[in-house]
What we know:
Layout: H1 5-28, E1 33-41, E2 49-53, H2 63-71, E3 79-82, H3 93-100, E4 108-110, H4 149-157, E5 162-163, E6 168-175, E7 178-186, H5 210-213, E8 227-232, H6 238-246, E9 251-254, E10 283-287, E11 308-312, E12 331-339
Parallel strand pairs: 1-12, 2-3, 3-4, 4-5, 7-8, 8-9, 9-11
Antiparallel strand pairs: 2-12, 6-7, 10-11
Helix pairs in contact: 2-3, 3-4
Amino acid sequence: xxxxxxxxxxxxxxxxxxxxxxxxxxxxxxxxxxxxxxxxxxxxxxxxxxxxxxxxxxxxxxxxxxxxxxxxxxxxxxxxxxxxxxxxxxxxxxxxxxxxxxxxxxxxxxxxxxxxxxxxxxxxxxxxxxxxxxxxxxxxxxxxxxxxxxxxxxxxxxxxxxxxxxxxxxxxxxxxxxxxxxxxxxxxxxxxxxxxxxxxxxxxxxxxxxxxxxxxxxxxxxxxxxxxxxxxxxxxxxxxxxxxxxxxxxxxxxxxxxxxxxxxxxxxxxxxxxxxxxxxxxxxxxxxxxxxxxxxxxxxxxxxxxxxxxxxxxxxxxxxxxxxxxxxxxxxxxxxxxxxxxx
Length: 343
Ligand SMILES: [Fe+2]
């Protein structure tokens, strides 16, 4: 049987293209990036530099991510937020500890993702491109938490970071302009239905007595450099974002999407791995979209006229099943709050 030379040439072009694409995607996951974004804020908000990291997905063989996260301490942020998925293997606690160590000298808060409880398992790399990866056999699998969650959360809380997992708490942070108050609220991972929404809207003020805070505090909130309502979640499902927005959060931070991880140049993310529209896969946006853009939402009038800033991190690591990134570099973000002039 003779084979057409055109078929041979076409096949070899396709094979070469595929090999180059995989080669680039394997490289791009190492090409770390810091993004600086200015967030316009209301006049009573503090001027703050907030470092947002997410989805580190560390193993014993991802030292370049550890080194990059450690280097972020040079930014001297006023506050650090981590929105979950720190592990890709059970034996990565040492790497996670090393990554966070320099950041723990700054105040911070965190929520957890499924990959802070459950180690990943082998499945097809194409799983990530499904609209909802949970439908690929996950629910049939009996999952037992097997990651060092306790040790990890202890590491952060013993250094003063707020565990915002289904909790609300107010804290003070020192800034160049004085003490700034941050009213924090967070949820568990909505992708695992571990989110509770009842406490959202409580917004506890930072403590106003030294006994409560253990530090010198202003005698009233009006004497501060401003306060911010900051909401944290791992997976930005619409029900969680709507609850935060209805509660008038100034800024919502989330991870989970990996920015799409495998994107198409000039088109963007193919999936968000949750019910968030593709256009919100990474970066800063306003949630919910303007009324004219709400056709794709579950609830087309989720928060009346209220809107909040939403920052979705593209994350720093990759899923265990697909250790590639394409047109979607691993990214940490410095969110620089810019309050308007006080009247
Ligand atoms: Fe993740």
